[in-house]
Amino acid sequence: MLDDQDDRRLVQTLELAQGGAGRVEPNPQVGAVIVQAGEVIATGFHRRYGEAHAEAEALARAGSAARGGVLYCNLEPCSQGGPGKHQPPCVEAIIAAGISRVVVGQQDPNPAVRGRGIGRLREAGIIVDCADDPAPFFRHNRAFNTTMALGRPFIHLKCAISLDGRLATARGDSRWITDERARAEVHRLRGSCDAVLVGRKTAERDDPLLTVRDAPLPPRGQPRAIVLDSQARLSGESALVTHRAGELLLCVSAGAPAPSVQALRERGVTVLTCREDPHRGLDLEDLLLNLGNQGISSILVEGGGQVITSFLRAGLYDRFTAYVAPLVLGAGREAVGDLGILEVDGAVAFEAVRWRSIGDQQCFDGYRRGWAGEIAAASRAGGG
Q1: Residue positions annotated with a catalytic role
Q2: Where do the domains of the chain lie?
Q3: Residue 309 annotated as binding?
Q4: Which of 52, 223, 229, 267 is least surrounded, with the fewest CB atoms within 10 Å of its CB?
Q5: Domain 4-132's class?
Q6: Is 206 annotated as a binding residue?
Q7: Domain 149-382 has what CATH class?
Q8: Where are its TM segments located (predicted)?
């Protein structure tokens, strides 16, 4: 059981870790704090991919004063070295520095670590304690944790809807259901993900760029754009092809017409061939495997309704954010279609739920119920 100071220092590690956002990926964001006699003597964070880890930076700043101190970090220190590793194992630096106790926010779900870092520290006689509730730490590095634990990208569903759950009117008009404040938040969500995904119908109807414009652009640049288009029908005149062909991933089925596929490839579009479910379109599990192979670890799914419904039906989602405007549209395009749910007990449910106001609008945000438990189970698989 941790005390109040432990909890405060662990929160501080998350604040420090945020400094690496958009710079350290695909590595996780990590912060470290070293305390001696109740006082912070050094801090550090992982600043950029390939550079010093948070623990190493904090230890270097503390120098010999670290001996006998307590080190806090939001993620289990790494223990592996060898080819492909840019930095030496942090556990060895911690042991050499004479740290007496380590407090971590979460164990590492990376199969190469999974408790080995904690085990090595304990073998060296160092006391290791873990946060009572690791869920906030899982959520901070949600893409890394999901990729390592579940073997696929983190999927964040997002929609802007009326009170009666409509994405658009019966004629397809959706501009604008929510105001500029909500739209600015969506642009920040885009900036936090590796890619933004829509279906072909949405790409044609709205002709979006799927870029970050009304929020600061992250250091890693614009997210990639993904369009689900089993028959490669996306127009070569669309904004995505015209202005973002080099950043566009078009996901098609093996049955897509070869001339259409070739024409899009000649424009610079990356075309990925995915398996197809004869009744439900592209196979989402195969789709996510293909996208993961492209280095994508987090995806914001913006619609339309059929696409959102497909991810919900398949259970392949991790977070859902809905911006709800004080409007009623009546007949129109629904955000979520039939999920085959016949009993309330079978409803889609969420954890870590937050409701908040944005002017006269409401924002719902929650994680798939069971998501944190799955990350925890994977993190414990290696012991520790």
Answers
A1: 55
A2: 4-132, 149-382
A3: yes
A4: 267
A5: alpha beta
A6: yes
A7: alpha beta
A8: none
